[in-house]
Amino acid sequence: MNQIEREDCEGEVEVFKAAADPCRLRILKLLKEGELCVCEIMAALKKPQSSTSHHLSILREAGLVKERRDGKWSYYRLADGAAIEMIKHARALKKNSN
Hints:
3-stranded antiparallel β-sheet, Arc Repressor Mutant, subunit A, 98 residues, alpha+beta
């Protein structure tokens, strides 16, 4: 059997850690409807700008969201449909475990 190196898992671990936070999961679910301005995300989460930006930064670094700047405004969208598929699979796994 092949040994799996720790480095082989680091990217996946980063993605799972980013999506595991309840606030960040809510952001991903918000963005499945399309691109949103940071101010819209803040309002939906009822979180301050600093907290919202921190969570978005983690999601961006994990490759789950993309940022677009327009002047002093930042807009976020899902990097691709894989994030939503990951959420659907997580829901299905939990449902099937009951």
